[in-house]
User: Fold this.
Amino acid sequence: HAADAHRTDLMTITRFVLNEQSKYPESRGDFTILLSHIVLGCKFVCSAVNKAGLAKLIGLAGETNIQGEEQKKLDVLSNDVFVNALVSSGRTSVLVSEEDEEATFVEPSKRGKYCVVFDPLDGSSNIDCGVSIGTIFGIYTLDHTDEPTTADVLKPGNEMVAAGYCMYGSSCMLVLSTGTGVHGFTLDPSLGEFILTHPDIKIPNKGNIYSVNEGNAQNWDGPTTKYVEKCKFPKDGSPAKSLRYVGSMVADVHRTLLYGGIFLYPADKKSPNGKLRVLYEVFPMSFLMEQAGGQAFTGKKRALDLVPEKIHERSPIFLGSYDDVEEIKALYAEEEKKN
Ligand code: P6P
Assistant:
């Protein structure tokens, strides 16, 4: 039977996580139940995003439908789906969403031992031009039985127990780490199941792609300016790097994870903390990069060691291939010595 195992022994994401969780004898399947609700949300969003192009015809997602009702924008719709799925899982106590100004505290009867931070539809401004967008999430455990507060999610990324993203592009891919490596699952629409297609993803130690919005170059600080200059005009005779920038974090990070290289959203004069959000963009992507053998740096420290003070706090971020990030860390260290 081994010969056609890939056809008859389907490793679905649920089965994969059950296998992983069976390593922890004390686990009672709570995480698996939580994850199955996140997966449900991703399947819904995948279907809605794929229909988005038809929205104008069938009045969905931000259009006025034939009854003249204002349909919800896709990112608001996605947020409602994820909040409802997470609350109904009965495994969460605190939720932080990019779409909601305040954290959601789950009612006592439905509380569980996890806190989830997420961006339900990151890069949603790219929907109308068909560019890949995605859901990004990170998971903390609740380590007390008192009333939950925002303190339960204002924790360093190094306390996250799992993180992942789902990319809605030419195919729907869910990339996940529960702390034992990074694994990629592709949605098989005919089965409605995410199937393991990329086991144990490792990012190349060095890449030849840099990914940054060059339009902000006039506002960058010294080390970032020097690093990008080095990518374009290498002094050591090595080939110049290629620039690839989609402008949708999930797409840029996914390419970096698979092909190697570095993704940068630096601080600049206009935004001293950069643009990307710590809890549900920087931390989950940094967690994945480290689990895949890469690293993530804020310009000052290891990204996962940041301790956020506000749930929508931003941070500069440099993440990707280990050796590439080392180079920009050295430039920031040099700058530090001068000051
Ligand atoms: P800029 C999308 O709006 C987003 O939040 C990320 O997905 C993406 O990496 C970044 O902003 C792009 O920002 O300033 O380059 O357009």
